[in-house]
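User: Hey, quick favor. My workstation is busy. Could you predict this chain's structure for me?
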Amino acid sequence: MTDANPYASQPPKSFWRTAVAEPGLYRMVDLWQSAYSLPANARFATYGSCFAQHISRALQKRGLNWVNAEPAPGKASAELAARYNYGVYSSRTANIYTARALEVWVKLAEDPARCDAIEVWQDGDRYRDSLRPLIEPEGFASREETHAMLRATAQAFRRSVEDAEVFVFTMGLTEGFENARTGQPYALCPGTVAGHFDASSHAFCNYGFMEILTSMKEAIAGMRQINPRIRFLLTVSPVPLTATATDDHVLVATTYSKSVLRAVAGELANSDPDVDYFPSYEIISQPPSRGQFFEPNMRSVSPYGVSLVMEHFFRGLDLSLPALDRQPDPDAARRIQAEQEIAEEDLACEELLLEDENAN
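Assistant: No problem, here it is.
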């Protein structure tokens, strides 16, 4: 008598016909179940490529505890806060597109003094931070101010890691540019929307599997030094590349990038019980969607696609553990004082935003 083959005991979700073809896109179940249980009042820190912003917003909309370690100060208007990129991620890092950039942010959080070594780009009489060149619409007034603001965000990034039970990171790109001498990554290619390109100083990198895996492991290890209890939830952005600096067609380059990122995320989730993977990429980009969740430019994800992704996310999220006792927010007093000062002036001005940051 022979043993039954391994497929004989697999559940319906393991077969394409019963899991995908028959239920169809909107009736699929068991697409994702959190790999770990969380307390009912778990706090989430969110970072990554542009698609990660949808997760930040969805957590807040659902009333879950989204960590905002660098809030807009006082009574700044929503418009002004948005213009200065507050409330987008759990600190004001702007988009973090590559694993290499995440690794650098963790190192800055470990030692904010390292911020002084981050390259600053001069734009006329204004200055831009090469890790987040568009964080201030008009740039900063000096190199010193640029580095001071970066240190403030590095400290806020650290607070977000300290405060969170789950660090959510959306992996976006394999392609990026670095300083050819120091190896410091840039948020974008110098000379595109900021800075000036110099072929002798700026090196194109298309990070491979092992490079990305190493950077992610370094970043995770660094965050565990800050918060030993933190867990990680990885996603891969379904948004295609806007452009590629390789010789490949952009469709081929996109497929390569997303495949490598997905493989790294899978490797990390399979090898570490405190790392999980959520399939936002698969929901939007795979055959069942038939491309219907992309806008006419075939790149931007429509609100309907985002809604379906979030539906599966919250359906599979396990918040069944008892709520944790929370300590008072140590920064609450400073924020209250800032609100009072702004209320007295009845102003929402840019200088007050900067002053509040320098208070860090």
